Amino acid sequence: MKKIKSLISLLVIITSCYLLISCHTESHTSYSFLIKVDSIHVPQNITSKTPFEIDFFGFIGPDGCYSFQKFYQTMTSNNDIEVEAWGLYQTDSNVCLTVMVYLNGHLNMTISAPGIYNLKIKQPDNNYLEKQLTVN
User: Fold this and answer.
1) For residue range 34-50, what is the model confidence (pLDDT) as tens digits?
2) Which residue ranges form the domains of the chain, and what is each CATH number?
Protein backbone atom coordinates (compact mmCIF):
# COMPACT_ATOMS: atom_id res chain seq x y z
CA MET A 1 0.00 0.00 0.00
CA LYS A 2 2.89 2.35 0.84
CA LYS A 3 4.51 1.60 -2.53
CA ILE A 4 1.31 2.48 -4.39
CA LYS A 5 0.98 5.82 -2.54
CA SER A 6 4.63 6.58 -3.29
CA LEU A 7 4.16 5.69 -6.94
CA ILE A 8 1.02 7.85 -7.21
CA SER A 9 2.83 10.76 -5.51
CA LEU A 10 5.73 10.41 -7.91
CA LEU A 11 3.37 10.35 -10.92
CA VAL A 12 1.56 13.46 -9.64
CA ILE A 13 4.88 15.29 -9.25
CA ILE A 14 6.09 14.26 -12.71
CA THR A 15 2.76 15.24 -14.32
CA SER A 16 2.73 18.59 -12.53
CA CYS A 17 6.28 19.36 -13.67
CA TYR A 18 5.41 18.41 -17.24
CA LEU A 19 2.38 20.69 -17.26
CA LEU A 20 4.35 23.61 -15.84
CA ILE A 21 7.16 23.18 -18.35
CA SER A 22 4.83 22.69 -21.32
CA CYS A 23 3.24 26.09 -20.68
CA HIS A 24 6.58 27.77 -21.36
CA THR A 25 7.63 25.86 -24.46
CA GLU A 26 5.32 27.67 -26.89
CA SER A 27 7.34 29.29 -29.63
CA HIS A 28 7.24 33.07 -29.32
CA THR A 29 8.97 34.71 -32.22
CA SER A 30 8.90 37.81 -34.30
CA TYR A 31 10.22 38.41 -37.76
CA SER A 32 11.08 41.34 -39.98
CA PHE A 33 9.71 41.80 -43.47
CA LEU A 34 10.04 44.29 -46.31
CA ILE A 35 7.01 46.58 -46.54
CA LYS A 36 5.39 47.28 -49.91
CA VAL A 37 5.49 51.04 -50.37
CA ASP A 38 2.55 52.27 -52.44
CA SER A 39 3.68 55.87 -52.87
CA ILE A 40 6.07 58.52 -51.65
CA HIS A 41 6.05 62.30 -51.40
CA VAL A 42 9.27 64.25 -51.95
CA PRO A 43 9.63 68.06 -51.90
CA GLN A 44 9.95 69.63 -55.35
CA ASN A 45 12.83 71.89 -54.35
CA ILE A 46 15.76 70.13 -52.71
CA THR A 47 18.92 72.01 -51.80
CA SER A 48 22.22 70.26 -51.17
CA LYS A 49 23.38 70.09 -47.55
CA THR A 50 19.84 70.99 -46.38
CA PRO A 51 17.74 68.30 -44.67
CA PHE A 52 14.45 67.35 -46.30
CA GLU A 53 11.76 64.80 -45.56
CA ILE A 54 10.46 61.91 -47.69
CA ASP A 55 6.98 60.66 -46.77
CA PHE A 56 6.21 56.96 -47.30
CA PHE A 57 2.74 55.43 -47.66
CA GLY A 58 1.67 51.79 -47.78
CA PHE A 59 0.03 48.88 -46.00
CA ILE A 60 1.94 47.11 -43.23
CA GLY A 61 -0.50 44.50 -41.93
CA PRO A 62 -4.08 43.45 -41.13
CA ASP A 63 -3.83 43.68 -37.34
CA GLY A 64 -1.95 45.22 -34.42
CA CYS A 65 0.72 42.48 -34.39
CA TYR A 66 2.27 44.27 -37.39
CA SER A 67 4.30 47.46 -36.98
CA PHE A 68 6.84 49.67 -38.72
CA GLN A 69 10.42 48.81 -37.71
CA LYS A 70 12.86 51.12 -39.55
CA PHE A 71 14.24 52.48 -42.81
CA TYR A 72 17.52 51.35 -44.32
CA GLN A 73 19.17 53.60 -46.89
CA THR A 74 22.28 53.26 -49.01
CA MET A 75 23.78 55.52 -51.65
CA THR A 76 25.79 54.17 -54.57
CA SER A 77 28.53 55.89 -56.51
CA ASN A 78 26.24 56.40 -59.53
CA ASN A 79 23.81 58.65 -57.56
CA ASP A 80 21.30 55.90 -56.74
CA ILE A 81 19.72 56.17 -53.31
CA GLU A 82 18.17 52.85 -52.29
CA VAL A 83 15.69 52.81 -49.40
CA GLU A 84 14.04 49.82 -47.73
CA ALA A 85 11.08 50.12 -45.34
CA TRP A 86 11.05 47.23 -42.85
CA GLY A 87 8.18 46.04 -40.71
CA LEU A 88 7.94 43.70 -37.74
CA TYR A 89 5.41 40.93 -37.10
CA GLN A 90 5.26 39.79 -33.48
CA THR A 91 3.80 36.31 -33.07
CA ASP A 92 4.27 36.36 -29.29
CA SER A 93 1.37 38.75 -28.74
CA ASN A 94 -1.53 37.04 -27.01
CA VAL A 95 -4.04 39.44 -28.53
CA CYS A 96 -3.59 41.46 -31.69
CA LEU A 97 -5.67 44.61 -31.94
CA THR A 98 -8.22 44.58 -34.71
CA VAL A 99 -6.83 47.50 -36.66
CA MET A 100 -5.33 47.93 -40.12
CA VAL A 101 -1.73 49.12 -39.84
CA TYR A 102 -0.52 51.58 -42.47
CA LEU A 103 2.87 53.00 -43.30
CA ASN A 104 2.89 56.74 -42.75
CA GLY A 105 6.62 57.06 -42.25
CA HIS A 106 8.97 59.97 -42.64
CA LEU A 107 12.63 59.66 -43.57
CA ASN A 108 14.87 62.66 -43.05
CA MET A 109 17.64 62.88 -45.60
CA THR A 110 20.42 65.24 -46.59
CA ILE A 111 22.23 65.08 -49.92
CA SER A 112 25.64 66.69 -49.82
CA ALA A 113 26.22 67.56 -53.50
CA PRO A 114 24.03 69.05 -56.24
CA GLY A 115 23.02 66.73 -59.06
CA ILE A 116 20.38 64.34 -60.35
CA TYR A 117 19.69 61.36 -58.09
CA ASN A 118 17.57 58.26 -58.59
CA LEU A 119 15.57 57.39 -55.45
CA LYS A 120 14.79 53.65 -55.50
CA ILE A 121 12.37 52.18 -52.95
CA LYS A 122 12.84 48.41 -52.78
CA GLN A 123 9.65 46.34 -52.85
CA PRO A 124 9.07 42.79 -51.50
CA ASP A 125 8.97 41.39 -55.06
CA ASN A 126 12.50 42.81 -55.70
CA ASN A 127 11.16 45.56 -57.98
CA TYR A 128 11.60 49.26 -57.20
CA LEU A 129 9.37 52.28 -56.87
CA GLU A 130 11.57 54.98 -58.45
CA LYS A 131 11.61 58.77 -58.44
CA GLN A 132 14.20 61.13 -59.87
CA LEU A 133 15.40 63.91 -57.57
CA THR A 134 17.04 67.12 -58.75
CA VAL A 135 19.23 68.60 -56.03
CA ASN A 136 20.34 72.24 -56.39
Assistant:
1) 999 999 999 999 999 99
2) 30-135 (2.60.40)
